[in-house]
Amino acid sequence: EFQFPKGMTLTEHGQVFVCDSGNHRIQVFDMLDGFKFVRKFGLKGTEEAQFTSPLDVAINCASEVLVSDSCHRIQVFDLEGTFLRSFGTKGRKEGQFDHPTNMAVNDENALFVCDQSNHRVQVLDASTGAPLHSWRASKKKKAEGEEEPAGDGDAGEDGDKQTDWVGVGSPAGIAVNTHGVVVVSDYRNNALYSF
Length: 195
Fold this sequence. Notes:
The chain is mainly beta. The chain has one domain: TolB, C-terminal domain (Neuraminidase), CATH 2.120.10. Helices cover about 0% and strands about 50% of the residues. The strands form seven sheets. It has a four-stranded antiparallel sheet with strand order 1-2-3-4, with no helix packed on it. A hairpin with a 5-residue loop joins strand 7 and strand 8. The chain is globular, with a radius of gyration of 18 Å. This is Peptidylamidoglycolate lyase. It comes from Alexandrium catenella (Red tide dinoflagellate).
């Protein structure tokens, strides 16, 4: 039974890990056995091995399960659901998050995270969480004499309207292929980007 299922991932052995966001847990099913229930892990909370609305799940190259949640962190588990470690806190610095929504891991064990409220995609080591790179957005600067465009832009921290964005505005979905191409969906700009 689910309540607001969100992100999911598959293992090479046919297990499906699903973020059961409203129930604050991960559920695991066997795709090769008619989606038979295998296990669940996690409880509501902010401590280790607890979740506050898990958002996405990914598997790294060491077959560890990475889960992002609304506590602005990524927790790492083994395939049985045993907590191993976590990384990330709320913030804007490298390795910190503000609403990490979707994730993808490439063949080189790089973790790509849609750091949505920080308006960027972060690239981290999928085992250690060490920051490797990021793509971020910035407000488009007005040319001299240019008027501020009319619109419903969100007010930023400094009160400026954030209507014109250059780069990734609000990354929502992410995918990586075997050739290293990263594709990001951006719901603020109604666009897809590839890197």
